[in-house]
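User: Structure with 6-O-phosphono-alpha-D-glucopyranose, tokens only please.
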Amino acid sequence: MCGIVAYIGHREAYPIVLKGLKRLEYRGYDSAGVALISDKIDVFKKQGKVARLEESLLGTHLPSTIGIGHTRWATHGEPSDRNAHPHLSASGRISMIHNGIIENYASLKQELLNKGYQFNSDTDTEVLLNFIDDILSNNKCSLEEAVRIALKRVVGAYVIVMLDAENPDTLIAARKGSPLVIGIGENEHFLASDASPIIEYTKEVVYINDYELAIIKGNELVLKNLGNETITPFVHQLDMELAAIEKGGYEHFMLKEIHEQPTTIFDCLRGRLDMVNGEIIMAGVQEHIEALKNAKRIIVVACGTSWHAGLVAEYIIEELCRIPVEVEYASEFRYRNPIIEKGDVLFAISQSGETADTLVAIEKAKQQGAIIFGILNVVGSSIARISHAGAYTHAGPEIGVASTKAFTAQLVVLTMIALKIAKAKKTISDDRFLHLMQELNAVPDKVESILSNTENIQAIAQKHALASSFLYLGRGYNFPVALEGALKLKEISYIHAEGYPAAEMKHGPIALVDENLPVLFVATKDAYHEKVISNMQEINARKGKLIAVVTEGDQSIDSLTGDLIFVPEADELIAPIINVVPLQLLSYYIGTARGLDVDRPRNLAKSVTVE
Ligand code: G6P
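Assistant:
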């Protein structure tokens, strides 16, 4: 979703801002723009890719050492040059980039229209900008003061960064609900929505909190709250390498990230799975073990792929810990007047840690007294900062819009948490505990063995690349895997795909089955295996095109289909981490066979920072 970059220092700002915009492309966007200062503010913006903006500026001399840049994911107003950011105020004095939504923009706009303001775009951003412009001209105050006054009237979420033609050595930024990171270099500062545009210049960063203003004048960064009190910035060290956000020889980030999984899973287990002493070491879980052990209920809130990880966790936690689990779409939970009772623990699962719906849902649950436990990938993210405790997934930066390595890392973390709670609650035998630890320990090698032999998956992808619809079926632990497989295909190939519990398909989806419909079963050896084979027979009888993910050595499905994808044997509780990998590859190969931009699928955003 919208990406923000800004620079102030001694170098030319344009190349740094442009490169930053390219680094943020993965978030998903439809237009891009920059604003720089000459003797006035110059704004350049284009609908479409950053490359289009770059092309339009080839050969233009842009010596400004201060600049702001933006990739826009349309909310108010269609994707177009005029709706792209940055916007310029009616007076021409100030310019703004904005990520988020100003919910009361309509009433603010009406006030401004009554005063004779005219607008050049359909955006809420231009309204906020002119609202500040109006305060500036009426109150004869500084821009900083005008921003403070304006933000007290604003309802909604935002990160804004502003240029002021009358103070060309000053950048002003503010945040509420959307992320903003400031990189601190040698006499220069870099601002961005996440660390990826900053990492090649500095590892020292400050995360701006809600209701804080950053004023960078020359070399000096000052943080203030909306009450004009100065706040001491807390400088973090980024634990991220540049290589982690580059393709490293792979054609796409998605393929690179799928192939990174043996390493990311290993990293996730490292230091936690103590095979020598038969223990799982997770400080955040240990610290809250009494609350977790005694939880009356665990509520999982998440969106998208993270929600699927929550569903797997429901099966695992209920089985191992005997604690009821409810898995909620964050966007529904937050508006439902949810019932939170004493002893409820809320798990927030999020790769980015910035998903607006998840963030607001947990804020609400926190106000009602729930203990918030974050299962997150991005260190220092907004959700990390408002959680009481949690565990990081250590999957490294995920750039491909479709989540892959973050999902498997979430499953690994959730399994370890469940094991730890079960041990503390004594709802698991020592033997089963050790067996599952060994199974977890073996996952990186099993995933590696799938990744070292992908020809078969590529051939199946080629065969079905032109399908217009797919059904994904599974039971038990493999049901959420089927859901995730269908979501991956939808996201990457734009083929309609539905995931369903295998037995439930008789109550509807079976009507779709004919000789053109590929039906993929996640049918590895588990407690439901025989029943799943019966479900496959039902599809076969109706001439559906069967594809099956099966356990190596299993010949029971040979007579039903030749489109078999073999995966190493694993305990059914651990199997989702392994079984999802071929489904990620299948959607990747179908997407590329259809000639699509798999890293940046249309309309999708990596980090959904608006509700
Ligand atoms: C977007 C992404 C998905 C992701 C979902 C939740 O829709 O495209 O890949 O699963 O957001 O994101 P989160 O960062 O909270 O896991």
